[in-house]
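Reopening this one. Same input as before:
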Amino acid sequence: MFIVGVTGGIGSGKTTVTRLFEQRGVVVVDADVIARHTLERGSQALQAVRERYGEVALQADGSLNRAWLRAHIFANPTEKQWLNQLTHPLIRAEIIKQLHAATSAYVMLSAPLLIENGLQQLCQRVLVVDVDEATQLQRTAERDQVNPQQVQAIMQAQASRQQRLAHATEVLDNSGSSADLPPQVEKLHQLYSALALQ
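Same output, byte for byte:
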C-alpha cells in the first residue's frame, strides 16, 4: 500500500487539500475522525474517561463533553498523557485497518499530529500543507470563533513549522487563495499516482 501522510498546523487548510484529493478518487483516512469515533458513546474509551473524571466529562445525553476534556487536559499534562495512553493505541489500530482497506492507487493519511505521534513511519511520502504562523492564527480564530490565545496554545502543543517541514517530502504552499490549490494538488496527484505504480 502506497501511503502519503498529510499534515500541517491548525488553520493550514489540510481539510480543503484532502477534499481535492478525494475528488480525484483518492481514499483519505482521517486520524481526527477516527479519534472522535474512539470516544463515542458506548465505547470502552469513553467508559474509562467517565470512570476517571465522573459525569463532568459527559454531556447530558451521555456523549463526551469535548470542550471540558480539552480544557482539562491542556491544563494538566499528566491527564493529557493518561488520555493519550488510553486512545492512541486504539486510534493507531483503526488507522492501520482503514489504510489496508483502501482501494485507490495510493491512500492518504491525514493527521494534524502525524509527526508528533510518529505516524510518518507508516508513510512513503509526507506532504506538509504549509502557511506562516500569522496566517494560521488569523484563519483559525476566524473559522472557530476563538480568541488568538487559544489558537496560540494549540499551536504550541503541535510540532513547530520547522519540525514539520524537516519531515516533508513535498510542501504545498497554501498562503494564497483557494483557487491556487487545484493545480498544486493535480501536480502532486500525478506524482503520487506514478510513484504508487513503481
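So the earlier flakiness isn't reproducible anymore. For the record, The first strand starts at residue 3 and ends at 7.
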